[in-house]
Amino acid sequence: MKPPVETLYVHVPFCTHLCPYCDFPKERLAGNRMRDFLRGLQAEWAWVQQEFTVSPQQVFFGGGTPTALSPSLLQELIEIAPWGQAKEWTVEANPDGFGPTKAAMLQAAGVTRLSLGVQAFRPEDLAWLGRRHDRATIRSAVASARQAGIPQINLDLIYGLPNQGPTEWQSTLEEACALKPDHISAYVITPEAGTELASMIERGEWHPDGENESLLFLLTQRILEAHGFNAYEISNFAKPGMECLHHQAIWSGQDYLGMGPGAVSTVAGRRWRNIRDTGQYARSAETSPHPDHEEEEVCGAQERRTERILLGLRTSLGLAEETLQGHEICLAELVQKGWGRRQDGRFLLTPRGRLRADEVATMLI
């Protein structure tokens, strides 16, 4: 019997420019490489249909920037598989380069959710992040999505930037809320190994301020909840009923299939990552049973339990207490510290506890 798959992630590795903080597999736009990618994805989809019972319920196109493709290539991408059969289909986009034409294409294809990489509004923040859009471009992109009839819009934001205190971050959040999105993802700036941001820290040009980040995190919770958003995960906030189904599937430990260069999959106790190089990905997908894998492993019961704890603690649902047997004393201490609470047979972190989610997870694993 073929393993069932309902959650799909498609990695589109192309960007018009490369941001200094991003560590996802990506490359600059190049016509031949984009065509290689599309051929590879077509071949991988053929293998997927043979190997798995695919019934898409949650589909997420990430990157890179899927909408960086030209309209003709974007149309080819859309037509590779019946992505539109899913209950939720998210496509990431940057404000620059996204307008009425591509918005209409996505809506016609059945995209239900657009995730805009806004990241910031202040010119100095955008410049530091290496972003090329401005406030007007952000407003225009949101308007294009709304006018096309895409049902849901998410805005990605980043905090913890240089010279960004509570006043500046509150202004950013208020400006985002004024656009009336259905969902906001607010992530702390994170220096990943191998990025230009990590090199800046090594050169002593900038250092994260953990105390300020904690303050901004708590401020985020308070402001967005005041605007009617539910903090259903540490970095994700949604209006009621607008939670991202794809994210929730991953956090709850469901299997997921990643397609495209560098995409990760976890299906039926196996985990693998596709080769990152676009050309090699395409060649291997076309000439082998499946794209070459850089990493492949078996996920045992203990590893899956660890992941459920790490991810579950980040969500508003928390963890069923029955999965934490043997940690009664620890749970009591966490409640006493004000880091956690117990409700209807589940253990949940408080906002203060979410600041220490990784620390708490270590205590419970």
Which short descriptors sum up this protein?
single chain, 365 residues, alpha/beta, nine-stranded mixed sheet, three-stranded antiparallel sheet, 14 helices, globular
Secondary-structure blueprint:
Elements: E1 4-12, E2 14-15, E3 27-28, H1 31-51, E4 53-63, H2 71-79, E5 88-93, H3 100-109, E6 113-119, H4 123-129, H5 135-148, E7 152-159, H6 166-178, E8 183-188, H7 196-202, H8 210-226, E9 230-233, E10 236-238, H9 245-251, E11 257-259, E12 264-267, E13 270-274, H10 278-287, E14 293-298, H11 301-312, E15 319-320, H12 328-337, E16 340-343, E17 346-349, H13 351-354, H14 357-364
Parallel strand pairs: 1-4, 1-11, 2-3, 4-5, 5-6, 6-7, 7-8
Antiparallel strand pairs: 8-10, 9-10, 12-13, 13-14, 15-17, 16-17
Helix pairs in contact: 1-10, 2-3, 3-5, 6-8
Return the CATH class of the largest domain: Alpha Beta
Q: According to CATH, what is the topology of the largest domain?
A: pyruvate-formate lyase- activating enzyme
Largest sheet: 9 strands, mixed
- In spatial order, strands of the major sheet run 9-10-8-7-6-5-4-1-11
CATH architecture of the largest domain: Alpha-Beta Horseshoe
Mean pLDDT, to the nearest integer, reads: 94
Tally of contiguous helical segments: 14
Report the C-alpha radius of gyration, rounded: 21 Å
Helix content: 40-55%
Percentage of β-strand residues:
15-25%
